[in-house]
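Here is this case:
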Amino acid sequence: MICLDEMGPESAKSHPGRRLLRCDPTAARRLRATQELDYGRRGKGYVFGAFIPATGQALTQPYPGRTTAAWVDFLEAVDAWVDPAASAVYAVLDNLSTHRAPDVLLWALNHPRWEFVFQPTYAAYLNLIEPWWKILRSLALKGRRFETWEAICDAIAAATDYWNTHCHPFFWGQRSRSKATRQPGIGYLPATP
């Protein structure tokens, strides 16, 4: 199973990080740090992504637009990236019109091991790439200012490489063992294996 989706449009702009407090030497009052408004009119594009929840491996590629031609090109890249020994590839997708375009369906006919599984409308949480996008945004964009679309592409590529060297499997609806769980009346305890 592989999860496919696109992130964007992402603009070359300031991406806010954590809210910092300015130190007041009198300690009487602390002011919130402010950031100048940035509308990001310095370039934009989309990041297409493929995510394998069983291993945690991910593939991202930037494109200037969300077109059918770009999607077919991305599917070719994903097909080359996926293990050739896999006899069947189930791709979880949303119902975007470019995912169901005639060119994409013709591509699927030429690649018989691929089967598209479209998630129900308003059920984005069923696609495990959605929580991974949050992690990628945190690794690549959070707290940084980008002057060009190419700088965003470089940051996304570096964050994806970092993720792939430190990846872990994803499970839908299951918390990580390292996080504490709350039990009523007892407080926080380590998660049970």
